[in-house]
Amino acid sequence: MNYLECFNINEKPILHVKVTDLKNSVEIDALVDTGFSGWLLLNHEIYKKLNSLELPITRKYRGIIGNVEVYVARANIIIGNLNVDAFIESSPYVEMNLIGRELLKRLNICFYKMNKICIM
Question: Would strands 98-99 and 40-41 be described as parallel, antiparallel, or unpaired?
Answer without folding.
Answer: antiparallel
